[in-house]
């Protein structure tokens, strides 16, 4: 006979019910005030400026096959948006080095001809490692999640040795361009650190625990994605990672649900765009424009932001893969996210601690009192 739940001993099944509760969907759709609109918007502008300079230069050069990596390098400008100027300078360099390292590691594994299982392990270790770095240096939004996209872009085989160098240099040089643009335009951002609290410092043991749980979840999600024949396991890994990321269990569960909603709608938008077969210059313009709009709204609602991040991410992928079916890629993104988010949500609950579930129960009780 099951022991009935008590207020001081909530069960995992009680936490699972939270996902299906109406207020979870309502919270996912709520528009919250931005912590600092100007800083977020400026980060989007800085990333867009970087992309607007780097992508055309790469495209007209003999290295047009590196266009996706140039687009990925521009996202370095999105980090440290709420940090003081001096700290942001160092933070951007940390992020550039982290992203470059991920590209080099995954590309090298592909060049060495690592079997599929090993590639999935490498991807999962990159996810867990990036999460540890995020929490150690407190890199802030958009966090380790967006860097996993760079790992996925390097996941293809076979790869020539020279391509490892080309990819690493492209991401690093465009990242340095992002750093320079952020440095030169810092006065337009204004220091928001007095208005936006910094990330809490987590003890090393907790950071390791989070990294290990992320590694497990992303491996299972990526493996499940490949079992159904999908060709972008990193997308499933990102779905799992999003569903397990948050300072509290209820944040993680909400984030997973929001990602599901946002990606499904965003992929549909991308599918419609790609049906019209935009040329490279049109896709570059869309990427630049979406970078700005996304950063203005994503702080208000994560699901709404994902509706724009998803088409931008798909365009970054398609732009470096001429001839690929954009509609097929959009539908695969939906399935990968469904798989990843489902696995992430299940593991977030299974690996939750009693204090996590107590906090969730208190949150649910507070919501119930307000309704």
**Number of helical runs?**
16
As for the number of domains, it is 1
Protein structure class: mainly alpha
Average the pLDDT over all residues and give the rounded result: 83
Per DSSP E runs of 2 or more residues, the count of β-strands stands at 0
Largest sheet: none
Q: Rg, please?
A: 20 Å
> Poorly predicted ranges (pLDDT <50, ≥5 residues)?
1-6
- CA-based shape: globular
- For the termini, the CA-CA separation is 32 Å
Kindly estimate the percentage of residues that lie in beta strands according to DSSP. under 5%
Portion of residues within helices: over 70%
Order of helices and strands: HHHHHHHHHHHHHHHH
Notes on the protein architecture:
The protein is built from 16 helices and no strands. The longest helix is centred in the N-terminal third of the chain and has 27 residues. It has 371 residues and is an all-alpha fold. The N terminus is likely disordered.
Quickly list its features.
74% helix, 371 residues, mainly alpha, disordered N terminus
What does this entry show, briefly?
The protein has 371 residues and is mainly α.
């Amino acid at each position: 006979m099951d022991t009935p739940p008590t207020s001081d001993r909530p069960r995992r099944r009680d936490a699972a019910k939270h996902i299906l509760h109406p207020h979870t969907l309502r919270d996912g759709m709520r528009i919250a005030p931005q912590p600092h609109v100007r800083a977020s918007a400026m980060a989007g502008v800085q990333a867009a400026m970087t992309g607007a300079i780097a992508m055309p230069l790469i495209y007209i050069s003999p290295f047009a096959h590196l266009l996706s990596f140039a687009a990925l390098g521009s996202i370095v400008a999105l980090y440290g948006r709420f940090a003081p100027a001096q700290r942001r300078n160092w933070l951007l360099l940390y992020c550039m080095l982290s992203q470059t390292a991920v590209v080099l590691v995954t590309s090298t594994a592909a060049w060495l001809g690592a079997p599929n299982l090993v590639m999935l392990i490498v991807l999962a270790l990159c996810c867990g490692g990036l999460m540890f770095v995020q929490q150690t240096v407190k890199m802030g939004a958009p966090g380790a999640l967006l860097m996993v996209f760079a790992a996925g872009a390097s996941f293809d085989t076979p790869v020539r040795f020279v391509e490892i160098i080309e990819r690493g240099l492209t991401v690093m040089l465009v990242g340095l361009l992002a750093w320079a643009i952020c440095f030169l335009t810092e006065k337009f951002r204004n220091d928001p650190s007095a208005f936006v609290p910094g990330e809490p410092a987590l003890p090393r043991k907790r950071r390791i625990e989070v990294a290990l749980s992320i590694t497990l979840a992303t491996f299972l999600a990526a493996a499940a994605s490949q079992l159904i024949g999908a060709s972008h396991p990193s997308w499933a890994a990102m779905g799992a990672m999003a569903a397990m990321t948050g300072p509290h269990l209820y944040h993680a569960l909400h984030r997973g649900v929001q990602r599901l909603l946002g990606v499904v709608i965003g992929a549909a938008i991308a599918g419609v765009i790609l049906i019209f077969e935009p040329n490279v210059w049109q896709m570059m313009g869309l990427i630049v424009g979406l970078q700005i709009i996304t950063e203005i709204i994503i702080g208000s609602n994560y699901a709404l932001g994902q509706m724009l991040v998803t088409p931008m991410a798909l365009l970054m992928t398609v732009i470096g893969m001429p001839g690929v079916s954009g509609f097929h890629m959009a539908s695969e993104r939906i399935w990968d996210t469904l798989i990843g988010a489902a696995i992430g949500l299940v593991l977030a609950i299974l690996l939750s601690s009693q204090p996590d579930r107590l906090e969730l129960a208190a949150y649910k009780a507070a919501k119930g009192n307000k309704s």
